[in-house]
Amino acid sequence: MAQAVTITLEHFERLKVALPAITREHLFDVYGISETTWGKLRRGEPVKLSTLQRVQMRYDRLRATLAQAA
Asked: Is this prediction's pTM over 0.85?
């Protein structure tokens, strides 16, 4: 069985700020997740560890790209 994890509200807020808009398209394009997974993260419910790792990897890549552009 896949390991499930939760994130803090502060972590969720950081992820939210990086989105241009909270739409199905942006959620998938930016983080590779569905609206259902986003809702779980927002409510503090568990998601698969591998999903959270993918989200964090994409978030880190986005921040690095923005830092290079500045």
From this structure: yes
